[in-house]
Specification:
alpha/beta, Rossmann fold, nine-stranded mixed beta sheet, 10 helices, globular
């Protein structure tokens, strides 16, 4: 790639000031990508929930993070109003120009992670967002749906592939009519278990040509997660909730090159590849 190109990336931080590995992992993926492709990435971060800050439309790529708490209890909050105004601005910018107009712009590319994904699914009304019977926390298989098989973001991913899942809420019961109206597609679901009478959660959606999101954490890296799980307080919590065998299994899976390491090195980098191809095509 042209080493003179400058790409502007905005990270929307929804962690509300709470300690997390997500922001560090996103920064590191961007750093590694810029180094590998000899790109100059200009990265800025915006604290959404406390400072109510969002980026303007001068960026090329937007990554909206995970975060704590309920995606239902903040309906109508001031920070959500700011967040969805930003989203509306992206939509308006990306909409095709009316017939007869000239000067089309390169569309903005957006990736929504976990909490952001839940918020946007709720906002668009494409599925039901609800609490889980128990918290999902660990390394889990993700199953691609038909539309996911050809999705560029999941290029070179196995079916199933494995990802870090950490949530007390879920997106279920897709509204096919609303998905069709938007031109959106469910790309992946959680582990298919026909013998369990619980609906499978939606794990990835392409909302439109320029917006995609995942319920899982594609940014999670093995080192950070391993350190997090071996923290004494976190270790005790996981063992108390899931048992010591589950804790040991999670540590082992984090070091499997075909699981978290593969997802970390493919999903968000594939999104960046896709975004840059769109930029080239639009110029």
């Amino acid at each position: 790639m042209d080493n003179q190109r400058k790409i502007r990336v905005a990270i929307l931080d929804l962690y509300e000031g709470q300690p997390n590995q997500g922001m560090r992992c996103i920064r590191e993926i961007l750093r590694q990508y810029a180094e590998t492709h000899q790109l100059e990435l200009q990265i800025e971060e915006f604290e959404v929930r406390i400072e109510k800050k969002v980026p303007d439309l001068s960026y090329d790529i937007y990554i909206s993070s995970g975060g704590p708490g309920s995606p239902l209890d903040t309906v109508g909050s001031e920070w959500e109003k700011v967040y969805f105004r930003w989203l509306q601005g992206i939509e308006q910018f990306n909409n095709p120009l009316p017939a007869g107009h000239t000067g089309a712009s390169v569309p903005k590319q957006v990736f929504f992670i976990c909490h952001s994904f839940q918020l946007v699914c709720r906002h668009y009304g494409i599925a039901h967002v609800t609490s889980r019977k128990s918290t999902a926390f660990g390394v889990f298989p993700i199953h691609l749906q038909q539309e996911g098989q050809g999705e560029p973001i999941f290029s070179d991913m196995n079916d199933p592939f494995f990802a870090v899942d950490s949530r007390s809420y879920q997106v279920i019961q897709p509204d096919k009519k609303q998905l069709d109206r938007m031109g959106a597609h469910v790309l992946a679901i959680e582990k298919e278990r026909p013998h369990v009478p619980l609906e499978r959660a939606i794990m990835a959606v392409r909302f439109n040509e320029n917006m995609i999101g995942t319920q899982f954490h594609p940014e999670a890296d093995a080192i950070g997660m391993s350190m997090y799980l071996q923290r004494e307080d976190r270790k005790k919590t996981v063992i108390a909730e899931h048992g010591e065998d589950k804790w040991r299994s999670m540590i082992e899976q984090l070091n499997d090159p075909d699981k978290i390491l593969w997802t970390y090195s493919h999903v968000l980098p594939n999104f960046l590849d896709y975004s840059l191809r769109k930029e080239i095509a639009g110029k």
